[in-house]
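Postdoc handover notes: sequence design on the structure in folder B. Input tokens:
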């Protein structure tokens, strides 16, 4: 199959496309802080959304992968203009719908709806910032969970390692 043309509505978030690799730090009042490695893939198939997957690994002090941590997958739906809708699924029994906007190379998203399975941990709200800084993708994530007010859980910086990915497999 030919490489699909990018849907024109996706132009504002086209800078996300590709495979990104990097590392970050995580923490929360209820857990020990940790270092992690991350891979994010944004792809497209010609329709007005990006496919998205993120995988993470716990890193030891030497920067080696110890074990898998969080993964999430979903779709970033660009509306005409600056508005975005993002649907994400987590293997921890959580599904989130974010709404937000892109302004130049900065994206801000807030949860509109969160749903949890009966056995998922208590999680109520998420706030994400993504930005392109000197060609790197920086992102920061605040959450409200396990009785705590919304506050920082994750921040990371990733470098682009591949430009085009047909979809986020
Ligand atoms: C890069 C992304 C993320 C990484 C690397 C990460 C990593 C971790 C780690 C290592 C823990 C502590 C141990 C554990 O419970 O496994 C944790 C706890 C937790 N995370 Fe994340 N997480 C990420 C994203 C998220 C997201 C997107 C959510 C919500 C949708 C979330 C919700 C939680 C909750 C509810 C806890 C439990 C806190 C507690 O029980 O005290 N995390 N995370």
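Designed sequence:
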């Amino acid at each position: 199959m030919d490489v699909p043309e990018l849907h024109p509505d996706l132009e504002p978030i086209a800078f996300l496309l590709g495979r990104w690799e990097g590392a970050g730090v995580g923490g929360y009042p209820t857990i020990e802080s940790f270092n992690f490695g991350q891979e994010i893939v944004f792809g497209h198939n010609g329709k007005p959304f990006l496919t998205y997957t993120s995988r993470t690994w716990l890193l030891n002090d030497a920067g080696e992968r110890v074990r898998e941590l969080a993964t999430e997958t979903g779709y970033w739906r660009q509306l005409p203009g600056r508005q975005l809708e993002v649907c994400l699924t987590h293997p921890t029994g959580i599904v989130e719908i974010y709404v937000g906007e892109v302004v130049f190379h900065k994206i801000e998203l807030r949860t509109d709806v969160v749903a949890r399975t009966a056995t998922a941990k208590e999680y109520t709200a998420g706030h994400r910032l993504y930005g392109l800084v000197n060609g790197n993708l920086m992102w920061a994530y605040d959450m409200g969970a396990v009785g705590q007010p919304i506050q920082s859980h994750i921040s990371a910086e990733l470098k682009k390692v591949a430009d085009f990915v047909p979809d986020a497999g």
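Context for whoever picks this up: Residues 26, 28, 30-31, 34, 36, 38, 56, 69-70, 72, 90, 94, 96, 121, 123, 126, 143, 145-146, 153-154 surround protoporphyrin IX containing FE (CB under 6 Å). Don't rerun without checking with the PI first.
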